[in-house]
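#onboarding

Welcome to the new folks! Below is a worked example of what a typical request in this channel looks like: someone posts a single protein sequence, and someone else replies with the predicted structure as tokens. Don't worry about understanding the tokens yet, we'll cover that in week two.

Example request:
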Amino acid sequence: MNLRNICDMRKIFFLALAIFCVGIVCGQNTRPMVAVMPTVGDVDDDINGAVQDALELGVQKSKQYGLVARGPAFQQALSEMTFQASGAVDDSQMAEFGRAVSADYVCYANIRAVANTFSISYRLINVETLEIPKVNMKSSSNRVDDFITMLDEISDDLFSNIADRRAEEEQRMIVERTSAEERERAARIEWENLKNTDNVDALQNFINQYPGTMAIQSASERLADEKEWNSTMRSYSINAYERYMMGTSAKYLEEAKNWLEMAYLKIAKDAAFTADFQKIDQMYDNCLLLAPYGRTMDDIKTIRCNAYYDEAMKLSKSKNVADLRKANEYLNIAKGTCQARKNIDSQIAKNDKQIRKAR
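Example response:
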């Protein structure tokens, strides 16, 4: 291969490159950019240049990638690089060069001539990840036709490889997206059947089967609520039921409320037999907070008033001023709602009269 042939070959490459560049500028920014570094090797500069030209043409022919032009920024970044004595560069230098020229990939080739054979080693590096999607070497005779054929094979090997990887990635993303949509639909249907269940195992299986779907949060809350309710029923204590009612997603809120009302009422009844007014008042206040209206509130209010009234009537028989004053205190408490309400005011008057006499 003589110098004239190489010069003619470079003219052909430059002409083809110019044709491919027309009409691609507008869409270039939407495609991954490839920077082709100058080829190095122990051959004539025109041969090195022909290899670089061929690789740049391969980028354009792929129609998948944009070519970083050899403009001022390209030349500036190149001048700042530190080459080894052989002219070679390492991967980190290639990535640094790529970042400087805003490339996504950097292509680099090294050519050697031995006897009548050319050998070209080449590699491609992802600037961001330093991944090397392609590294290879090809050889040809020193005949021009063979040399051009080898350059075409190298271009195809380099840039169709990227295209294949990109297509595979896009296909993988489509499959994953489709799979995710199908899982979301299946989870939605399954959740419609499960959202009212009290089966803890079924809820746990749903969570294990459909992680990351939109229904997972609701399912997790329902599972936690079922576990808490089961624990509450096993404890069967006022504290457990009160704690359950403080939950944010209590499905059994009404059931817990009804249970507590009955519990408060029973405790108040038992306390009335022993005249434990502190316990009666505590249950009255609890019920007032829990259910201020309804049958249970009326019942516990009546229990409270009757208990205070009965105790007041006992104290009213005493001649002790302290007992009479305590009796009137209790009668005023009972005055709200009591079967014997009509007697309260007259009894308070009688007690007041006894208190005045005792002075």
